[in-house]
Amino acid sequence: MKHTGRRIAAGVQALILALMVVAISAVPKMTVKAAPNEVAVPAIGIDVSRYQKLINWDQVAASGVQFAMVRVGYRAQATGILSEDPYARYNLQEAQRVGIKVGAYFFSSAVNEAEVVEEANFTANIISKYKITFPVAYDCEGYKNASNRHYMLNTAMRTALAVRFLDTIAARGYVPMFYSSRNDMTGNAYWDMTILNRYKVWVAQYPAQPFPVSPASTYAGIHSMWQYSSKAVIAGINGVVDINVSYFNYDGIADAKDPISAPVIPVSAAENVQYTDVNEVVMTNSVVNVRTVPNSDSDATIVAALNPGAAMIRIGIGNNGWSKVLLNGVTLYVSSSYLQRVV
Questions:
Q1: What is the mean pLDDT of residues 7-16?
Q2: 148: buried, middle or exposed (CB in 10 Å: 19+, 13-18, 0-12)?
Q3: How many Å apart are CA 181 and CA 173, to the nearest integer?
Q4: Would the pLDDT of 200 be above 50?
Q5: What is the Cα–Cα distance from 95 to 262, expressed in whole angstroms?
Q6: Is the model's pLDDT at 14 over the cut of 60?
Q7: For the domain that residue 110 is a member of, what is the CATH number?
Q8: CA dist., res. 148 & res. 217, Å (int)
């Protein structure tokens, strides 16, 4: 999930909410059935993943953020490897602890029914120990890139997989929600919205003047949440983060589905990156930077830029989305999404 940075502070929360009430009149009404404790009151929230690294949730709560959509996991677009977001459980735990209402999402690259059901159950199994009040969303991107494994899917196939994920999530007791960009949903360009609008819809569109200057997304279809910027500046988060306005809220916080409490994740564990040892030949599926560290924070860590088809030995797959590789006898790092195993 990916305009101008905007700090949400407690002192301006009343103004934002007042403006949101005006904005609601411009948004198509939802036809999905409301959750039992859902109320027609808008809210400001963020969506987070490993890209925000370690978050100070006390500061986020003090800033006025009301809800957080936490990425639980993802399937790599090139290899199809299913991974848990390494910060998922810590983010769920800490957002819940400080009283921020929590939802979740999964980044999918499933190409068949078995894979998408696996993704939905993987998500539901992890979140079952947490108080998931906001919806659980399906996020599928990158399908226009010929190097991605789900490039071959057409609109009907893509939509059918989204429906299967969302129905599985609903069957597990959560409110399902579909996420995509304004352009990809408009005119059923890449998704059949005549089918998907029976779920809550979360639209991404970043206007030159973000909310509340731009009062609503220009997406004409039914939607209940708008991701209006990918560059918000929020206390407690290093760098920028996606920010959203939802046109609904809840009058309480949901109970966890699983009565057995989740193990407490200490800060040290949240920061701990683990690698699964492997010994396999992999190949780049795109132009990719090889780095001395497993992050892309600085160009100074780039050792080389490899062209598509470059081969190397992978010796570790990290829970942080990076692979440890041997290149000319040196241990280096490459984003796992740009590698595919050579059979």
A1: 44
A2: buried
A3: 26
A4: yes
A5: 14
A6: no
A7: 3.20.20.80
A8: 29
